[in-house]
Design brief:
Blueprint (H helix, E strand, L loop, with lengths): L4 H6 L9 E9 L9 H9 L5 E3 L3 E5 L5 E6 L6 H23 L2 E3 L20 H10 L5 H4 L3 E7 L3 H15 L3 H4 L4 E2 L2 E2 L5 H6 L21 H18 L17 E4 L4 E8 L4 H20 L7 H14 L13 H15 L2 H16 L2 H13 L4 H18 L5
Antiparallel strand pairs: 1-4, 1-5, 1-6, 2-3, 3-4, 6-10, 7-8, 9-10
Length: 407
């Protein structure tokens, strides 16, 4: 969670005033092999197994997957530059700990390219009750649970009316975000069938209870009461019928749509972005989302029909920037995203503008999935496909370490 509890009691942020990031990284060795040792690393660091280790400005700790570490801010950021500096310090601190004691490094990106499901496991300590409850009903032994890494962005609201407006515009924007944010081209050592394979698996990882995820793109909300009734109560009833206990019932965080209300922190959480290769790229996406939202609100943009958003989103998962879409400002995802970048540029503040160039480069040269796939294919002409993967993803490890975008 990105909004520190003590600080939440003291401050109520204005709509879109701050950015609350949450990052997910694989722990790997020099040969890119995953290391499912999060609990051991935490115990070695603080002498006992806990969920999270809180430092003055950031916190790191466990995820469901034993080879993944979550890194999050203790308080959200008004300044994108402060966001970048603080979270890069977090990455540098954790990388230094891993390298010095174990020889391991952190890897960003939406999916690990070589992971086999039997190589990792599920966190077996405190909070395991949650995972046991999920496991009673859902198949957790799949890529949609064990091999996905996302970048979550929390955006604050103050009043119900603000929250609903931001939620509904985010539903529009998030249908097109994966065209820029996809970074999961390869899994199990092969090119995946889609550009955004993380979202390919995410869409169906809870198919036993489809109301949890819905269409990923959320339905429009007209009130908090309507949202609680039609979304949270609905999937809670479905879970109860399948045998879930109170651990999972009426919990807002169970909702797996691409945008969810976090009433506990007065924020909306965006979940459709793959983790990027470095913090600077995550900041750029955050600036793009916030500035584009500011523009949608200021220009009172028309909300697109939900069924169009869902069709475009599914098309983009498959074909990325080249996807055919039904957006009024373009027939391809590239054109729709260029429209949103133009909107963001018009409404960005001076700090945000310093990061939007990176989104522009992604539009010019392709998202990370497209770029990685292209570079691996080029390298594979002179070596094996696996060696090509090791070569390119070793560069991506350095990108995270050095905070250097990959182009």
């Amino acid at each position: 969670m990105s909004f520190n509890r003590k600080r939440r009691r003291q401050f109520t942020y204005k709509p879109l005033e701050v950015l609350g990031p949450e990052h997910e990284y694989s722990i790997v060795n020099q040969e890119l092999k995953i290391q499912p040792l999060t609990d051991k690393i935490i115990k070695d660091y603080c002498g006992r197994i806990v969920n999270f280790i809180e430092m003055p400005d950031f916190t790191f700790g466990k995820e469901m997957q034993l080879h993944v570490m979550e890194v999050k801010a203790n308080n959200p950021f008004k300044s994108p530059l402060q966001f970048e500096e603080t979270m890069q310090t977090a990455v540098t601190t954790l990388n230094a700990l891993l390298e010095k004691k174990y020889g391991y490094r952190l890897l960003g990106i939406g999916m690990h390219p070589l992971l086999q499901l039997e190589e990792t496991g599920i966190w077996p300590h405190y909070h395991q009750k949650i995972y046991r409850q999920y496991g009673k009903i859902l198949n957790l032994n799949q890529h949609g649970w064990l091999n996905i890494q996302s970048f979550h962005l929390n955006l604050p609201y103050r009043k119900e009316a603000d929250a609903l407006q931001i939620h509904n515009y985010l539903a529009n924007l998030c249908a097109y975000l994966p065209a820029i944010a996809a970074s999961s081209p390869i899994f199990e050592g092969k090119n995946g069938p889609d550009i955004d394979n993380r979202l390919r698996f995410y869409r169906v990882n809870q198919k036993e209870v489809p109301s949890i995820t819905g269409d990923v793109i959320p339905q429009y909300a007209s009130s908090f009461n309507q949202y609680r009734r039609d979304v949270i109560e609905r999937y809670s009833e479905d879970l109860a019928r399948e045998g879930a206990d109170k651990t999972l019932l009426n919990r807002e965080w169970v909702n797996s749509r691409g945008v969810i209300f976090r009433f506990d922190r007065k924020a909306l959480e965006v979940r459709v972005m793959d983790e990027q290769e470095c913090i600077k790229s995550d900041v750029a996406l955050s600036c793009f989302v916030r500035a584009a939202l500011r523009g949608l609100l200021a220009e009172k943009a028309e909300l697109l029909p939900h069924d169009i958003l869902v069709r475009d989103f599914n098309s983009i998962i498959k074909d990325g920037l080249n996807a055919k879409v039904e957006h009024p400002n373009g027939k391809t995802a590239w054109q729709a995203c260029q429209h949103y970048l133009n909107l963001a540029t018009r409404h960005a503040d001076e700090e945000e503008k310093k990061y939007l160039w990176l989104v522009g480069r992604r539009l010019e040269e392709g998202n990370l999935s497209e770029l990685i796939r292209q570079r691996v294919a080029q390298r594979a002409q002179k070596t094996t496909f696996k060696e090509a993967i090791l070569d390119i993803y070793s560069t991506l490890i350095r990108c995270l370490h050095d905070n250097q975008p990959y182009f």
